[in-house]
Amino acid sequence: MTRFGLKGRLAAAAAMALALQACDDRGARIDAPEPASLADLSAMNELPYAEPARVDYRAPSQGYAWAERAYGLQRAVYDTPPDYGFEYDGVEPLAWETEDDWAMYAEPWDEGYRYYYYEPGVEYPYFVRDGGYGYAYDAGGILIAVFDSGGRYLPRDDLSRFAPVAGRYWMRGHKLRGAAARRIPVDEQVWVQRAPQVIRTADPWMRAAREDQRWREWRVRDKDRELRRFAPEAQRREGEARQWRERADRQEVAGLQAYEGWSRRQQKDQERQQEAERRQQREQARFQQQAGREQARRQAEFREHRQRDQAEAQAQGRQWREQAQRQQREQAQAQRQARQQAQREQQRQQRDQQRQQAQLQQRQQREQVHAQRQQQRQQAEQRHQQMRQQAQAQQQMAQQQRRQAEQARVQQTAQREQQRRQIAQRQAQPQARAAEHQGQPAAAREHGRGRGHERKD
Predict the structure, then answer these.
(1) Residue 444 is inside which H or E element, if any?
(2) How far is the C-alpha of 304 from the C-alpha of 307, rounded, in Å?
(3) Cys-Cys crosslink for 94: which of 77, 82, 303, 405, Cβ 3.0 to 4.6 Å?
(4) Bigger pLDDT: 108 or 401?
């Protein structure tokens, strides 16, 4: 018995249960829902306010990995019973966990399910999928890619429009992760009732991953790496799913028998039912009027909530812009102050440099003046020394001249004396010769006086 055969039987069983409640079976369709416009996203009204997600677009070569990881996890668990359930905010999400702690939560929402996908040990989802779109997040909650229900990778310009709802989904996933610690077992009867709806809301995503051409091309380049990650888990769950499908088949047979008995009773009570239907139509018309008023009231509340959310988002945007402008002003002021400080520092350095140059010039001038004065003193000393030397030389020359003059005078005196003696001698010679004639004694006496005069001289 294949998975797809079981899916058809589960859908038929769900249709019979709805018929017993006098409801139509249009909810059994497995076609992908039409994408809702952002203006009508009920999550904006249903979920508490959270800051819009920051956006950092990743190219498809990177972003497909997030969607492929979510597809691989859901492909591994697909129609297998959940591992547990839990309660949060008035609903009972279902949870599947792999042996290596990857997790997927299915939260009841808008007659379907919203899916959250988690890596092991991480408190925030890496991927969230509602009826129309899939949202991929990095580890910090930044929205990096958005996929529509057909698997199309939305362009960069579309991401900012999804930021408000993506921020709420990411925060919702965090709160679900915390509430999942209080686990509740899910019995087979509950799973039989909820499985058709879970499978119906899973099928568009499964089909999109198989049929979108660009996604398939990326998978070929990736060599099924993300799918191989969950292959052991798919094999492990296959046996459990087979046992559950066998038990579900037995419960389906009992449901068919109950339906046949109900059909026979229905034929007998057809007339009474027609009258009841007419009364019900009248009541339904009245209810529709009330429902119309209630719907109008809800739409008004929705518009009010949406306007309030938009106002909050605008106020938050204004705060962000004001903060950015304030930061820009502070940055500009800091830059201006830094430039002024740099200019003042440059001016101070220039003044210091000029002062140092002036001091250096003054010192050089003083040294030059000192050197000139020293040179002048040296020159004066040299001139004075030269003058002294000249004076000494002149004095020595004068002394020498005096000595020479004295010597000349002495020589002149000696010469005069010598001349006088010579004269005297010449004068005495005649007398001597006369004396010789007069006698020797007189000559001797004259000779003695001459020697006495020489001694006196």
Answers:
(1) helix 440-456
(2) 5
(3) 82
(4) 108
